TrEMBL record:
Transmembrane feature ranges: none
Keyword vocabulary terms for this entry: Hydrolase, Metal-binding, Nucleotide metabolism, Zinc
Cellular component annotations (GO), alphabetically ordered: cytosol
Name of the molecule in the record: Adenine deaminase
Species per Swiss-Prot/TrEMBL record: Cellulomonas pakistanensis
Amino acid sequence: MWPTAELHVHIEGTLDADLIRELADRNGLPVPAGAGRGAPFRDLQDFLDVYYANLDVLRTRRDFQDLGARYLARAAAAGVRHAEIFVDPQSHTERGVPVEDVLLGLSAALADARAAHGMSGGLIVCFLRHLGPDAAMATLEAVLPHRSLLLAVGLDSSEVGFPPSLFRDVFERAAAEGLRRVAHAGEEGGPDYVWEALDILGAERIDHGNRALEDVELVAHLRETRTPLTVCPLSNLALRTAGPDLADHPLAVMLDEGLRASVHSDDPAYFGGYLDDNVRALVAAGTVTEDQVGVLAANAVASSFLPDAGKAALLAEIRAHAERVGAAVPALALDPAAV
Ligand code: HPA
Ligand SMILES: [Zn+2]
């Protein structure tokens, strides 16, 4: 297993049918009708409707700690050495769950994973674009007392009709607080949404970014600025934003174009697989070669918000793994200065 970094996973999207049933039972709640529903979905919204309904079983700090712990144990088995985890606080505070229970429960799981698996990681608070910019700003204010637990802010949920520009002020305020910035863009929205995420929000990574390939100037810009794209192939098939054949997934073009793309799991309980499952499926479909799997791992580490020393240490692990299995050493692992 290549050592790697997970940069695009929604913790609520790791809530599988077993844990839904367990939490429903523990909290004295009915099992949501969508428990166990998986791919395919009609589109992003069809999926989100199920995702928001199912997460109603998450009520207590312990629920969030258990959710995080199960994901992190599974991620460790996939070779994940560093995990930057998305969380949607609004999907919980809207239901009356205190934000500190969400953040402290997940942070406890991250601390336990450091001890148990030697994994590092942190939380990225995402704003739900369908609730608009005022709710996003209120959410930022609500999480700032827990600033030390947070790496970054992000933007997710229904994309089309909610362009990044709506969230200019909240991203500006987050940056002023020293938070890093990422945004979902180009999943269903066009290249104009990716430009806005970069130019207006100051996003340092683009989550998905598939539709960036429709704009040659944008592709050149992403290459020159080494802007990371966190790509989720099984998610794209499940939500019909790519495919139906994984062999036609845009990741191959992204790598050919020299873009800093890496592979992640998005909502693995719904889309049929964790990070390693995504990678295995890509290799099986012939979308990437075995040697490119090492490039994807090195890109993920380089794209993370780890400090330089942490990146160098993980790139050294990747180099050692390549040498052990006789694979090509990814260029970034040979020359960490190029990160
Ligand atoms: O795939 C996704 N896209 C946008 N928002 C999301 N929130 C959870 N998963 C997703
Ligand atoms: Zn996502």
